[in-house]
Amino acid sequence: MDKSRLGRVLIIAGSDSGGGAGIQADIKAVTALGAYAATAITAVTVQNTLGVTGVHPIPLAVIEAQARAVLDDIGADAIKTGMLASVEIVELAARLLDGPARGAPAVVDPVMVAKGGASLLEDLAVAAVARELVPRAALLTPNAPEAEALTGIAVRDLDGQRRAGERLLGMGARAVLMKGGHVEGPTVVDLLLTEAGETTFEGPRIDTRNTHGTGCTLASACAAGLAQGLRLEDAVARAWGYVAEAIRRAPGLGAGHGPLDHAWPLRDAR
Hints:
The protein is of the alpha/beta class. The chain has one domain (8-263): 3-Layer(aba) Sandwich (UDP-N-acetylmuramoyl-L-alanine:D-glutamate ligase), CATH 3.40.1190.20. The protein contains ten helices and nine strands. Strands 3-2-1-4-5-6 form a six-stranded mixed sheet, with helices on both faces. The chain has a three-stranded antiparallel sheet with strand order 7-8-9, with helices on both faces. The longest helix has 17 residues, at 232-248.
């Protein structure tokens, strides 16, 4: 087997004990799409579908050692960053992208707030994400509140998505997937912007509480596609369809914001 075509994804993100988001969702999504997931865990969170009750950052030296151990042996065809928690972890991720991970496209999911409202990124770290990670992103995947925090532009409609996305391109991102799940309306529109133009991905809003981990899952699914050699637009299109079906098939676990059905492609392939 050509190992590079398997698609090796190194995920730098936090752990979700409930399994719906974070590293757990990342691994499930990458695996379901046929790629290989390795991890450098940045924080351990205590959470379930009702919310986050604890965040415990991993020491910087341990985060770096995890990433270097993977890159020195297994290698990576794409990097995905998720919850980074602090300025110091953001800066470490940037150094890894410039150093041992150099050359692998980075999918940067600027995770700031959990589905239940808990903060997953220090306020001071927002500026660090804008400064250190946006210019290093092959693909940036902000939702509306994250894009507003990074750009100062209100994102209330498609025009706001477009203006914020264009600002993020101007800040150095090579491509931006502006997610529309937080924008009101019966249709969800995600907007992919590059210097070459824009592509829209849209579908009817699914009336469900089971949307925990959608952002993590989408970004990791995009990273899997890039790692497998797909064109950006094709990687995003496959990821978008995968997440939409995972929401539709959500198992309904927990009393709050439930997880998706990450494994549906594996069952369909039987």
